[in-house]
TrEMBL record:
Transmembrane feature ranges: none
Protein name, as recorded: RNA binding S1 domain-containing protein
Superkingdom of source: Bacteria
Gene3D superfamilies reported for this sequence: Nucleic acid-binding proteins
Keyword Amino-acid biosynthesis included in the entry's annotation: no
Amino acid sequence: MAVIKPEGWLLDTAENREALRSPANLLRAEEEGRTVEARALVCDSSHNLIVDLGCMKGIIPREEGALGLDDGTTRDIAVISRVNKAVCFKIISLPHPPDKMAVLSRRAAQEEAVRLYISKLKPGDIIDARVTHLEPFGCFVDIGCGIASLIPIDLISVSRIAHPRDRFRVGQDIRAVVKSVEGPSRVCLTHKELLGTWEENAANFTPGETVAGIVRSVESYGIFVELAPNLAGLAEPKEGVKPGQHASVFIKSLIPEKMKVKLIIVDAFDAEYKPEEPYYYITGDHIDRWVYSPPGCEKVIETVFK
């Protein structure tokens, strides 16, 4: 199976830079049917994209701007939002004389991405993705040539978050797992399985330590504090603590058979620390089953990919 990367990954490769160096090189890329990337300069009033090819300019007509524009399943914002960013495309025709614009098709590049790569993905496949925008309900990512997919907020990590921006930023490159495939180009993703089991995360902490954490929720019976994206503990109630605050917490105990971490909040405070880059415990390209809970635990938490 061919692997096609998110839009922008080709832009600074040696082969792509060489293709943009001269009209002759662009002609060779056209003849070979290669996907090329360049920066979109303008989206005109008719929603055609004007692209900087280095040695000339090119135009992606609106109808060639993205899969689904012709039947309304994709909105024009998918084209407008590419201005000043990399766009992928196939070269349809080069101008004669060369002072006119080349005609390009982003839709053709996306069709190839679907045919050769996205339509062949299976649940459990681990793929590269690039964060494109964040909504309260989840994180949208590009999984190849600008094809969008969603990681629902509850599948981002085991530790619950208020908004995907608590984990990700736009433009960030991440890994994700195919959760389900609902059509040739419709793929739903999950992320939490890559962030480690309870045991793997708990191994980084020892009772008696005071460590950093983030307050995720405040309940009448205690305060949930995240120690890692896939590990949270319950602290005793403390006056004035609010969700979203950073904290220093004392670890009283780790109880694997109940997947519990007992904490005491030493201090809680407001801070604007950026989310850390995710650490992935799984480095392969596929998983069939992931078990979060430790062996012998009273409750089994797992994901089975079918």
